[in-house]
Design goal:
Length: 101
């Protein structure tokens, strides 16, 4: 009967690391968000703006309290500005009387 139920005692799973650590870390997400926000000012702002906001939010560990890294804040702010400008630009092209003719 030896050996039943003793394997978990030899190799217990740590409580703090139950997920895989293969994804990008917070600093990388912040830098990706800043790059998306800057690129969004030039092309596809309606897509890259929300991506920048999402990357910045994930880089801040999904909270507004505590220490926030600077690239994450820049990504969120520039992504929000980029998204608002893209929405204004789309609304301006959709109004009557502003076509080619």
């Amino acid at each position: 009967m030896a050996g039943f139920g003793t394997s978990s005692r030899r190799h217990p799973r740590s409580r703090g690391r139950t997920w895989s650590r293969t994804g990008p870390d917070r600093a990388t997400l912040g830098i990706i968000g800043v790059i998306c926000a800057i690129a969004g000012f030039f092309v596809l702002g309606i897509v890259l703006g929300p991506i920048a906001i999402l990357c910045g939010w994930l880089a801040m560990n999904r909270t507004w309290s505590g220490a926030r890294p600077v690239p994450a804040i820049i990504a969120v702010v520039l992504g929000a500005i980029d998204t608002v400008l893209a929405i204004i630009w789309l609304a301006g092209t959709a109004t009557p009387g502003t076509g080619l003719f």
